Amino acid sequence: MLTIGVVAIQGAVSEHITALEKSSKDLDCKIVTIKRAGVVPQCDGLIIPGGESTTISRILRFEGIDKEILENKGIPMMGTCAGLIIMSDYKNEHVEGLGLIDVQVTRNAFGRQAESFQAPLTVTVFNSPFDGIFIRAPAITQAGDATDILARFEKYSVAAQQGNKLALAFHPELGNDLRFHKYFLRLLDSYK
Length: 192
Ligand code: GLN
Prior knowledge:
Strand content: 25-35%
Radius of gyration: 15 Å
Shape: globular
Helix content: 25-40%
Strand order of the largest sheet: 2-1-3-4-11-10-9
Structural class: alpha/beta
Order of helices and strands: EHEEHHEHEEEEEEEH
Number of helices: 5
Distance between the termini: 10 Å
Bound molecules: glutamine
């Protein structure tokens, strides 16, 4: 039985849980929420949802969840939008990225809330375009040699994978296309 944890501090948490439930029908797995310390060590994989990276980062630290994620950093993880920022090593006075994937990010790369948009993305691991939903999205400006870029939009990279870590600038949980969740579950299955 696989245990998948969804960081449930703020943001698109229930949408990720629903997408995971729909994607994991053939898998023996349990989905748990992570609001405080003590849960991450039981997880075989983690999702860090989008929301507001300043809030998510602050509460991860306050609750001591950040340390547990770092102690378990070998497990598969998927970060979306603000979750990508948390997975990177981005740092400012409010946000402390955890350095789980070797990418540089810029926050709010595509403008403000009003400039949120949807765009078909060519993704290297899928055979037809994936509709990316971008909401005050960050972008990947640089990636290390061990990091594969899975999708680009305009001048930026917007999806990256390094081993069992997957980081997306957009929100796959807000659409009906489950391919990224299924891809993540396959990663989990192959790294267990
Ligand atoms: N703009 C947010 C941030 O920088 C991310 C937005 C999102 O996750 N949809 O934290």
